[in-house]
Specification:
This protein starts with a helix and ends with a strand. The strands form 9 sheets. The chain has a 5-stranded mixed β-sheet, with no helix packed on it. Strands 1-28-27-26 form a 4-stranded antiparallel β-sheet, with no helix packed on it. Strands 2-3-4-5 form a 4-stranded antiparallel β-sheet, with no helix packed on it. It is built from 1 helix and 36 strands. By secondary structure, it is mostly beta strands. It has 2 domains: 295 residues, 7 Propeller (Methylamine Dehydrogenase, Chain H); 92 residues, Immunoglobulin-like (Sandwich), CATH 2.60.40.4070. Helices cover 2% and strands 49% of the residues.
Length: 429
């Protein structure tokens, strides 16, 4: 089994975070994801939604394809309906599938009998509809150059435009959590939109991303944004008006889509298939496994124990996700998490100096170091014996050679002969 140094380091650092109740020996094996089955489709698989025993595939030039997934190892194509233009995104609610056709329409399809989908009609959109999601009686559509459009689907077969708000970039994908919609807005990063009144959506916050924002998922107070050719970006949403980038992890391919289940993000990664990212600590995402697919992995959704991947020219691929969180409560030989040690930093965030404060229950030798999130040690603050009680150490934001380090998140790690703990700090220059 091959594990990259960066992956091992990220997993190692996860095991030293104070609020992680146990230091887990994470299963970092590629077997975390297992390919189960596939069904080729006649067109180019772009996006997928799952409802019950069926997967609904937006299949570009071949419209909507309906696939029976009751036996994941042997999925079967059971129905289809052609559309006026290219099928791009799909969402399902009840007996209806809503498909964006990359033209200027939203297509409404009756799927009450999945084997015989019926095209009911279309609703014109201001621009070129892309991704979409359902929340309550509303459908939220990422409408490219026209931003976010909100459709009332209280009468499912007759969606009506209820409201909209333009975004500064090109809206590609959207997700909804509570009273906010989050739009992956291309070169304009992530847009946070208040939808407490769906008919009057309003942008309340945004954050620029280092590359083109392609997709977004939300879990808890964090948004997980797919950025072109750069993998996964983690954004703190605890203050919706001031979202903040707090973590990132690169993926081996060109990340295109994302779905979240439990403590894992599943990233469809272009020519590198499906990648699993451990997000128990959102600020420290760690790539922990992957499975290749034959073509270009685009849309992805997780339902039950399986991930369903729209894999362009090779159709639907089904991957069983068997990523386990904690398999042991052992930190390693003789080490336990932070027993009798208290560690803090002030100020935090800081520029350019901070003070590392700690207390010991008894006299002992300790090692205190500062680390990048990749696991690389930046500075050694102490390697000596200390008496019981309270102590402090300064750090001036410089590495072992005396050079100033760049802005970012670092970890201060304190280790004794029997225990270990760490503290996250942020340098803002």
């Amino acid at each position: 089994m091959k594990i990259s140094i960066a992956t091992f380091a990220a997993a190692f650092l996860l095991c030293t975070i104070p609020f992680s109740s146990v230091c887990a020996q994470l299963d970092l094996a590629q077997s975390c994801l297992q390919w189960v089955g596939a069904m080729d489709t006649p067109g180019r698989a772009m996006d997928v939604a799952v409802a019950g025993n069926y997967a609904y595939m937006a299949d570009r030039e071949s419209g909507l394809q309906v696939i029976d997934i009751s036996t994941p190892g042997s999925p079967a194509l059971v129905g289809a309906v052609t559309l006026p233009d290219y099928a791009w995104g799909v969402a399902v609610k009840g007996n209806y599938a809503y498909v964006t056709d990359r033209g200027d329409d939203l297509q409404v399809i009756d799927i009450s009998v999945p084997e015989i989908p019926v095209l009911m009609g279309a609703v014109g959109m201001p621009s070129s509809a892309h991704g979409l999601t359902v929340a309550g009686n509303y459908l939220y559509v990422a409408d490219h150059s026209s931003g976010l459009q909100v459709m009332d689907i209280s009468v499912p077969e007759s969606p009506a435009l209820a409201g909209g708000v333009d975004t500064p970039g090109f809206a590609g994908r959207v997700t909804v959590a509570a009273n906010y919609a989050y739009v992956a807005d291309g070169n304009s990063g992530l847009q946070v939109i208040d939808i407490s009144v769906p008919e009057s959506p309003a942008i309340v916050g945004s954050v620029d991303t280092p590359a083109f924002a392609r997709d977004v998922a939300v879990a808890g107070n964090y948004a997980y944004v797919i950025i072109a050719d750069s993998g996964l970006l983690v954004i703190d949403l605890s203050a919706p008006a001031s979202p903040e980038i707090v973590g990132a992890v690169d993926t081996p391919g060109a990340a295109a889509g994302i779905a979240i289940a439990g403590n894992y993000a599943y990233v469809s990664d272009g020519l590198s298939g499906l990648q699993a990212v451990y997000i128990l600590v959102p600020e420290l995402p760690a790539l922990v496994g992957g499975v290749d697919t034959p073509d270009y992995a685009g849309g992805v959704v997780v339902a039950g124990n399986n991930a369903y991947v729209a894999d362009n020219l090779s159709g639907l691929h089904i991957v069983r996700q068997e990523c386990n969180d904690v398999t042991s409560v052992e930190d390693g030989p003789g080490l336990i998490p932070s027993a009798g040690i208290h560690l803090a930093a002030y100020p935090n965030p800081f520029n350019p100096r901070t003070t590392i404060a700690f207390s010991l229950e008894r006299a002992e030798r300790i090692n205190v170091g500062v680390y990048e999130l990749t696991g690389k040690r930046v500075a050694i603050l102490a390697d000596q014996a200390f008496t019981a009680g309270e102590h402090s150490l300064p750090w001036n934001g410089r590495d072992v050679t005396g050079r100033s380090v760049s802005s970012g998140i670092y970890l201060v790690r304190l280790e004794t002969a029997s225990a270990v703990t760490s503290q996250k700090i942020m340098l803002v220059r």
